[in-house]
UniProtKB/TrEMBL annotation, chain A:
Residues 26-380 form the Luciferase-like domain. PANTHER family: ALKANESULFONATE MONOOXYGENASE-RELATED, C2H2 FINGER DOMAIN TRANSCRIPTION FACTOR (EUROFUNG)-RELATED. Gene3D superfamilies: Luciferase-like domain (3.20.20.30). The keyword Hydrolase does not apply. It comes from Streptomyces alboniger. One of its GO terms (molecular function) is monooxygenase activity. CDD domains: Nitrilotriacetate_monoxgenase. This is LLM class flavin-dependent oxidoreductase. Belongs to the NtaA/SnaA/DszA monooxygenase family.
UniProtKB/TrEMBL annotation, chain B:
Keywords: Flavoprotein, FMN, Monooxygenase, Oxidoreductase. Transmembrane segments: none annotated. This is LLM class flavin-dependent oxidoreductase. Belongs to the NtaA/SnaA/DszA monooxygenase family. FMN binds at T74. Pfam families: Bac_luciferase (PF00296). It comes from the Bacteria. Residues 24-252 form the Luciferase-like domain. GO terms for molecular function: monooxygenase activity; oxidoreductase activity, acting on paired donors, with incorporation or reduction of molecular oxygen.
Amino acid sequence: MTQRPERHRQIHLAAHFPGVNSTTVWSDPRSGSHIDFSSFEHLARTAERGLFDFFFLAEGLRPREHKGRIHDLDVVGRPESLTVLSALAAVTERLGLAGTVSATFNEPFELARRFAALDHLSGGRAAWNVVTTSDAFTGENFRRGGYLDRADRYTRAAEFLATARELWDSWTPQGRPRPFAHHGEHFRIEGEFTSPRSPQGHPVVIQAGDSSEGREFAASAADVIFTRHGTLEAGRAFYADVKGRLAAYGRHADELKIMPGVTWVLGDTAAEAQEKAAEIRREQVSPQNAILALEQVWGVDLSSYDPDGPLPAIDPEPASELAQGRVKITDPFAVAAKWRALSEAKGLSIRQTVIETTARQSFIGTPASVAEQMAEFVGADAADGFILVPHLTPGGLDDFVGKVVPLLQERGAYRTEYRGATLRSHLGLREPVWKG
Amino acid sequence: MTPPTGRGPLHLAAAIDLPEVHEAAPYAELALLAERGALDFVTLGDSFARPGPDALAVAAGIAPRTGRVGLVPTVTTTHTEPFHVQAAVATLDWVSRGRAGWLVDVSATEAEARLFGRRPAAPREELWREAGDVADAATRLWDSWEDDAEIRDVATGRFIDRDKLHHVDFEGSTFSVRGPSIVPRPPQGHPVRVVDATAPPARETAARHADVALVRAASALQADAARAELRGLAARSGRDPDALRVFAALVVDLGGGECAAEPGHGGGPLPTAQGPAYRGGPVDLAELIAGWHRAGAVDGFHLTPLEPRRDLERLVNGTVALLQHRGLFRTFYPGSTLREHLGLARPANRYAQLAGKPGSLVGEPS
Ligand SMILES: Cc1cc2nc3c(=O)[nH]c(=O)nc-3n(C[C@H](O)[C@H](O)[C@H](O)COP(=O)(O)O)c2cc1C
């Protein structure tokens, strides 16, 4: 094989533990526990064998409900992220450990402390995905309740992160605590932090959220963006938009890595991969799941519709509370219109339409062609790397690491060893300057 | 029915705190040492008020490096969300495969309140009542998933049986939680709750909610009185007092090596700022432990080594070895969960019971 380093820039890879979603094909006989620690250990060790930048855990603070009842079709339940990651620090050596934690239902002192602990325990491998949950449904589990307006989510998140950074910087480089005081709009706190500066200075900060406010927050303060823009065209537009926002904050384009969540299917031939991909989609979108996906857009009971029949002719209910605990669809009319047009043009049933329009696999093909597609994607400035979301727990990453990683390495598009010990070093990010 | 004195098997636990150490390896070494001595559990203290790592994170960090010993971090209830507390403790139970405990504590100072800026400091009585509410809500959330809720029924396409997940709708005086938890019921059903019941405001909460209560006593007689009081309070709150283990908490300084105990106190503990402290040799400490336990004054001991590395080594290789040699303490773990070490049953699920299934609530207040 010839080395074909198309670009200087190398691909960054991360592994998403497939949790609560319809991506996971739990009905597959190879599907194991999504709760036992051995599953987390298996996926993390596989990712580390593949020299990945980090391992990623999402968060949800209340089981989803549909029509007032707990949603029972997809995988439900997950252990608490920071505790799992602290345990994973003991069974991995280089892999970054990223946890999603809401800035709404936590307090800066406590969370800054927990992330500092993870960074110390892992020797500098911690990352925090700052999300901004604000729905009253989730709030019912917390003292705070669902008190925050959508518009205030990012002002709180930004102040939360700024406060955490003040705490992470509050010890002197000589290792002595100094008093801090933060008097802002959302937080008025003071005292002494309990942890010395951690190995990375500040854990790596990830942002996941797509609105203009979310992108601005990421441009101003995040090291990595986890995005859903997984097609080449959408990826390029998102990439250009976000990277363009950095200069206003005095930041260089390389200081923020853009990593879409992607899925993949491998086959020995292109045809076999396509066939497998179609089969996985049919398992992900069962007849019941198809009606449910439709109800999430339409916001009304559609249980009398035939999943193999045509889409409903009625209009969506815009302010529906039918589906609780999911990211809301902002413009259901537009989605419904798009789905209807597609269904009519191609003569698709409800289930076929949902299969076509939701979460298709991003990369399908032989290992060589998937490696090629990924390198192209990064070469075309559609991403700096990928967060891989397997459809099986816990072995869903095995084939990728065994078959695609070596090919990426042969192309010179991927690292062949970890150079440094910290997540920042994997991502090529500088340690933040101490602002004591 | 209830024996007036504790003549069950002896239980031993030790603190493995290392002030200012933030890496996992030194803690793991101590925990492994304790495990070599077949101790029931190790504790990790915590407070927002002093430098030191997050105890629960450290416990999780040493879980995969140990196999049997129970891991009991302090988690305070005053400023932390009850929903997060129960999820983190349940997760510690998952990652340690049934070895998690939770030392319930409160944050009482104004300085701690200012770190959060949400409410002023409150009297300890109030904080301990709230801690009781948090412990109560936590056990309800641990029960909010029945053990067999996950069905993976391919025929109907259902991953869970939604009738086996329950809203808890807990209303405490300072918070409410709707539930269910996001974490499935942990391996032990309820991770072990430990409460230091020395201070009067903590006593009622310990009697109602603790699986293990710690008392600081300077003599077997004092320990016996404290144990009797806790058992009485537990019975009055509707619990079986035999489901409550009472441990004497002692600071131990074994720095004198094989020397005899300090002259003047005959091997008994001395009063210090941290409570009763034993200073002397490992052999005399074994005498003290055996004597108090034989007298039925306590179910076990929680020992805080003054110098962790030195004293824990002497404790395990000296005191524990001697107790084992005399047949007073186990030489191996017959079970694998912390509840099994403590001889405590796995609690039945309260919601499963409501659904008319057999089983009783062991050690639970009504
Ligand atoms: C790729 C991606 C992953 C996300 N993961 C989570 C998550 O794990 N937990 C969560 O509460 N919210 C998650 N969110 C939701 C965001 O934090 C945010 O609340 C939501 O996207 C709405 O913000 P926006 O209007 O800026 O998009 C995710 C969002 C995106 C785009």
